[in-house]
Amino acid sequence: MSAAPAPAIEVSGVTVRYGDVLALDGATLDVAPGRICALLGTNGSGKSTLFKTILGLVAAERGRVRIHGGPTEAARRTGTIGYVPQSEQVDWAFPVRVADVVMMGRYGHMGIGRSPRRADRDAVARALERTGLSALAGRQIGALSGGQRKRAFVARGIAQGADVFLLDEPFAGVDKRSEATIVEVLRAMRDDGHTLLVSTHDLATVPDFCDDAVLLQRRVVAQGTPGEVLTPDRLMEAFGVAPAEARAGEGA
């Protein structure tokens, strides 16, 4: 019998403090390759800190993070890990096209002059096609809807060649049609073997598109399939409210 593949994301006993504030308390979780895993928790539960720790932007007091068995620094250096933040620090009035934003994902593959080659242009074209933005490639980024902007930054990660993606609230501020389109994109990425850790406050949609789920409250309260994780007792432990209230709340 062949051994199970190493986790794409492995977080082992990670503790993080900001001064006297305990942000993560021995958090342990793993995400298998080719899976979509939801990251759920209230405000202050440590979701953003966990993302930053996985990305190597915050140092853990204890514990470690591995991406495909190696250190985060190596994953960042090789472009293996991609990040789609909840809100981009972008001047939406700046005259930059959608294709230019996606091309930013190729910078790590270019030389000092940052001059795109055919491989870079082809990667951008494929990413735009996958996210349904080919027809909008020449449009100014600020002219897009909220959902289209989210897809543009997902396309940037695809063009980068990332295998592991962290997405922070990809459905925040988008309408239902855009949400459905983004879910379709994420499923297609999963089906192509990518691994996705998705922070979301919309508990009701998690069983529809996620293979796994993690409940976080500074420590991992539960991890498993959505059916195993989203139980009344565990939601009460993580959110401190009845399940119906948790599903209705924002909890981001």
UniProtKB/TrEMBL annotation:
In terms of Pfam families, this protein maps to:
ABC_tran
Query: Where would I find the ABC transporter domain in this sequence?
Result: 9-243
GO molecular function terms here?
Answer: ATP binding
Arranged from A to Z, the UniProt key words for this protein are: ATP-binding, Nucleotide-binding, Transport
Is Signal given among the entry's keywords?
Answer: no
Is Nucleotide-binding included in the keywords of this UniProt record?
A: yes
Family per similarity comment: Belongs to the ABC transporter superfamily.
| Entry protein name | Metal ABC transporter ATP-binding protein
What organism does the UniProt record list as the source?
Nocardiopsis sediminis
The upper taxonomy is: Bacteria, Bacillati, Actinomycetota, Actinomycetes, Streptosporangiales
